[in-house]
Design a protein that fits this description.
Blueprint (H helix, E strand, L loop, with lengths): L3 H7 L3 H5 L3 H4 L4 E8 L5 E4 L8 E5 L21 H7 L4 E5 L2 E4 L16 E4 L5 E4 L9 E2 L7 E2 L7
Parallel strand pairs: 3-4, 4-6, 5-7
Antiparallel strand pairs: 1-2, 8-9
């Protein structure tokens, strides 16, 4: 079995790992959240630095106070992830509350470097699901052209 160092060297990145600056080595051996398992069943632990974000926005699709007109604070969160995606700048992140978000997330910009990433993460312990689908509440009607087929007219927004 190869050691981590030999594996990295065999992969062509050993020199970078061995010559890693002291500030990065401080994070060696930290678990990822959620944990990531290697093919042999052992846990992969990172040596990457923790990102420091300059600003955090909050999204909570089910909060009564949530609105995309809000500033995205904990007390006045955005309702949609896409709203956060429009305002996030490099080095900032959005914390998303639990829920199913039926939306199309179209980030306006990306990060500019590994230290200035844009982050999206679930709130601690939250299960976040993004679905591009929508629930159609309009009236379905039987098709006249095929038995067992139902149809519903869709608005242009779909």
């Amino acid at each position: 079995m190869l050691s981590r160092r030999r594996f990295l060297q065999a992969a062509g990145i050993g020199a970078a790992a061995v010559a890693m600056p002291r500030r990065l080595r401080g994070n060696a051996g930290k678990s990822l959240d959620p944990p990531v398992l290697l093919p042999n069943g052992r846990e992969f632990k990172t040596w990457q630095p923790s990102l420091k974000f300059s600003k955090t926005y909050y999204v909570d699709g089910s909060a009564n106070a949530a609105s995309d007109d809000n500033p995205g604070t904990k007390a006045r969160p955005f309702r949609t992830i896409n709203r956060a995606a429009q305002v996030l700048q490099p080095g900032e992140r959005a914390i998303v509350a639990a829920g199913v978000y039926r939306e199309w997330v179209r980030p306006k910009r990306g990060g500019t470097s590994p230290a200035k990433m844009i982050g999206y993460q679930a709130a601690p312990g939250a299960k976040v699901v993004i679905r591009g689908s929508r629930i159609v509440k309009d009236k379905w009607e039987a098709s006249h052209s095929a038995k067992g087929l139902w149809k519903v007219p869709l608005a242009a927004e779909y």
